[in-house]
Amino acid sequence: MTSSRGPASTRGLLRAGLVGLALAASLAACSPRVDNRGMRFDPAVVSEVRPGMSTRDDVLYILGTPSTVSSFQGPVWYYIGQRTEKVAFFDPEVTERQVVEVLFDETDRVSQVNLYGLEDGQEVELVERETPTEGQDITIVQQFLGNLGRFNTD
C-alpha cells in the first residue's frame, strides 16, 4: 500500500507545528531572567576568616578584594552579592542578598565577621530636595534676547 498525503494533511501538520512553536515561545517569554551580581559565599569559606587570628592579607587571600570599604567607621570591608529575577517587562525583584562585613582592629587583625541576608536590609527613604543654585531663573527667550548684540563681527 502506498500512503499519499494530500494538501489537507500537510496543512494540518503545518498548523500543528505553528501552534506548538507559538506555545513554546509564549512559555519562554514567561520564564524569569536571573542575574547574579557580586560574590556568592559558601559559609564554610567565610568561616575560615577567624576573629583575632586572621589579618587583612588572610582575608584578601580567602575572600578576595572587597566590594566596598567603609568611609565612616574605621577599617571595615564589605563583600556584597545579590540575585535578581526579572519576568518579561516588569522591574527586577531581588530574591537573595548576601553581605559579609569584616571589621579590623588597630593591628589589622579581624575583630568581627558579620553575615547579613535580604531580611536584614532596611528601606531608606531618599530625600527629593534640590540644592539651590546662584543666579537668575530666566527662560530660553530671555537668554536669546539677552545675547542679541553681544556678538563681535571682527
TrEMBL record:
Swiss-Prot/TrEMBL keywords: Cell outer membrane, Membrane, Signal
Residue span, Outer membrane protein assembly factor BamE domain: 42-112
Keyword Signal recorded: yes
Signal peptide: 1-24
Matches recorded under InterPro entries: BamE (IPR026592), BamE-like (IPR037873), BamE_dom (IPR007450)
Pfam family, one: BamE
Gene3D superfamilies from the UniProt entry: 3.30.1450.10
Presence of the UniProt keyword Zinc in the record: no
Full protein name: Outer membrane protein assembly factor BamE
Gene (name only): bamE
